[in-house]
Amino acid sequence: MKFTDGFWQLRSGVHASYATEVRDVRLDEDRLAAYAAVKRVGRRGDTLNAPLITVEAHAPAEGVIAVRLTHHAGKRPEGPDFELPGASARSAATVRTEGATVELTSGPLTLRLPTEGAFGLEFLDGDGGLLTSAGRKGSAFATVADGSHHMFAQLALGVGENVYGLGERFTPYVKNGQTVDIWQADGGTSSEQAYKNIPFYLSSRGYGVFVNHPGKVSFEVGSEAVGQVQFSVEDQTLEYFVIAGPTPKDVLTRYTALTGRPALPPAWSFGLWLSTSFTTSYDEETVNSFVDGMAERGIPLSVFHFDCFWMREYQWSDFEWDPAAFPDPVGQIARLKEKGLRICVWINPYIAQKGALYEEGARNGYFVETADGDIWQWDKWQAGMALVDFTDPEATAWFQGKLKGLLDQGVDAFKTDFGERIPTDVVWHDGSDPERMHNYYTHLYNKAVFDLLEKERGQGEAVLFARSATAGGQQFPVHWGGDCWSSFEAMAESLRGGLSLSLSGFGFWSHDIGGFEGTPDPAVFKRWLAFGLLSSHSRLHGSSSYRVPWEFGEEAVDVARQFTLLKHRLMPYLYGAAVEAHRTGVPTMRPMLLEFPDDATARTADRQYLLGPDLLVAPVFTDDGQVEYYVPEGTWTHLLTGEHVTGPGWRRETHGYDSLPLLVRPGAVLALGADESRPDGAWLDGLELRVFAPAGTGDFTRTVTVPDLTGAPAATYEVVREGGEVRVTTDTDRPCTVTVVG
Fold this sequence. Notes:
It is a single chain. By secondary structure, the chain is of the alpha+beta class. Helices cover 20% and strands 30% of the residues. It has ten helices and 43 strands. An eight-stranded antiparallel sheet has the order 4-5-6-7-21-18-17-15. The chain has a six-stranded antiparallel sheet with strand order 3-13-14-20-19-16, with no helix packed on it. The model has no long low-confidence stretch (mean pLDDT 97).
């Protein structure tokens, strides 16, 4: 929210009070509290009729400093609050005083507060360098014309400093100059709204900021005060965490340790998913024609997904198969599984009035209510739909019980759609604040479904295809990018959203290959195939038209086959990156910033990424195949052609539909599987270690760990290049092939 009219004045009706000078400090061994007057105090009378801002600081985890600003402390606490599984009950900080300065230190991060003179907070790195600061207007509250009360903070931006993240945002990748409201919305990929709103941003200077507030948080990223990131909440308190680096990877590791690490998805989920699409025909004959058609054309499928109309019209969600199209759903599922497929079905948390489930939920009080005690309902999406109240444990168990019936039928995964259109004029079972619950609802929804899958299928076998999320939602993968148009522009929008989400703590991400709305031009579809199959997860899905490759010509069939088989060969490498995401929070799809934080050009690259640590992917966004991309320092190797490309520098190339810039990092060792038929094969059978050691790479040692299907190490290889010779040692007696490229 903007409070000022230009730099000098406040907007009409706004009254702001800023922490101006410290009047008292209370210190503990691991935390501090400062009481700041909002004006200069020159005499005793100045202490009357004027507020204080209480500024508290502690460390919920090593390398993380929490700052809490409070005006009036008497507001009754209302949930929900973010679950912070990595937060310690005891502050992980030490406090010391030196002259008129107090310092609170946690690991490589220090908060410095002067107790005399002008109020201000400085955040220092492990070498004492300034990361950011809250200056003369950096800790404040304001009332506005409608009488609402807002707490806000400002943290300084350095010259050339870039800000990233804030969830899956389809606006420009670098967030400087933008106004961002953390508020769940079903706005598609072509607007400033977002399905996945995360009040966390990452700075190119090697620190992060997480605003610990699940409700609406308004960010002004250099867009009100151009040298500041401002964030505000309509509340009496505001808490934010500054998270140390020094590298962006380190920031994500600390942030996900605090808010939760991504679960490891099963290896089968990395294969190709095929959907019925949304409003198309789903009968068994049509479904079989798709599945058999893919097999006949040599395109391996891993998952078949049934979208909304697997249920009867006007009755979503009642979790009952439409008998007109599915007279034998259990038998049909079994027949599909005999072909080696996993099954996913679409769900949402809305219960339509026409379905029998509505009567059951209403009778038991499982739906969100209005202030008058009525069931909250509207006609958007489904006629008379109600909303499951996941703050009620009984309602959650009831919802899970209905899904268990589908698991018993043979369903393996759920597409947890929606979760964004959550009303604020309602009453929740546990008394939660409706404004705070608007964003947080998706967390309870996805957690309920994910927990059920883990309970029924076992840890490591649970996977969602989720659209909405808030902070901590990365624990329940996988997430996809929502509704996009079938165009090159929407393809680029989707990538920007995925890059932003990756820098918001999410390890796994997907998108609708070919776009969702409309029918893509064959050129769009073919280019999107390569992009989609070089993402962590890959799904063919549309709205009113099918996405089977032969609908777009025989060349599309060839492209789909080529990149599906390539992804399967890459699985020993790719699943290793997935294990790293699970253990450290570093995503599988990595913006260039993560691997090359000191490269100024890499910091703004938003049309390319790294898949794992060593594969640079630059999707082609043109019909004629022209693509411009950036190559970091070193001699890289085209995986598809073997050509060497030396950076740093920009490249302009033209690629056919069967190609795109797919470069291997100098000195990388890729573990490649021999089985192209599936993503979850026996990776050590016929394993190839492909060593990329072009001239100028020099001597090096690389350790490669190939995981098993649980993520545990199956074999470790140490590859040493020295004096022109390559040696490999391993802890397994399983044979492998070593290929030295270049």
